[in-house]
Amino acid sequence: MRAAVMAPRERLPRKQRKFKGGTTSFMVAMHVLATIALLPRFWSIQGVVALAVLYWATVLGVTLGLHRLVAHRSFEVPRWLERVLVIMGTLAAQSGPIDWVALHRHHHKFSDQPNDHHDAGRGLWWSHSEWMLHEIPALEHKERFGGDLLKDPFYVWLDRWFLVLQIPIGLALYWYGNAAQVHGGGVGLVLWAIPLRLVVVYHVTWLVNSATHAFGYRNFDCPDLSRNCWWVAVLSFGEGWHNNHHAHPGSARHGLRWFEFDITWMHIRMLQKLGLTRRVRQARYPG
Q: Model-level pTM?
């Protein structure tokens, strides 16, 4: 099925073309530190393990926790488990959980329309990451799209202090790296576990906003540019089956055909077998 053809976009207002100093500086700093982490002096097996474990926890926290559980309520879990999953997702440092969920719900409401904050009609680079470096008008509707979370003190606290979560991880790894005399020391472990992990997770999740609105195939005729992109699905634990998701946003399962591998769905199935989920909504491919 063919995607909708987007009309040409008008130029953004001047105030929205201005770069935000804080966000832009943070992103530049993380990318510089991630590059430094790749220097031979900071490489270690322990660093690779720390990156892999935290990548799994962070991406799963985003896909299973912030996205399928909280943003779409496609299944239910005990309150304590929701808290754990949301904390894991907040480790991605993609703003706080209320901002994340509110913006995602806004995206579904206005997908690939001019007021979509990462509107794919403005190009691949804009939808990938540039949108967040500027003023985001969609946040003016935070209460409308995230009002249920604004009533919860847990979410409000995390939304304000989300960056603080990196501190205990950094301190623990710094101590271990020095105590165990890991190659690269504590600094090396911190570089691999925080800036390098964050940058990898950033680009993987950003690919869902950009690549899956540009590359791949469509199972459903949605009024946007969403596509199913297998390699994004592999990297993002199943989020790359984006056309399926836009057609059935309330479904906990995104990979609907036999070959659409969905790692997040496998984790949800595991939670089902453990008796930790209920009211799991699942769409099915009609073919």
A: 0.94
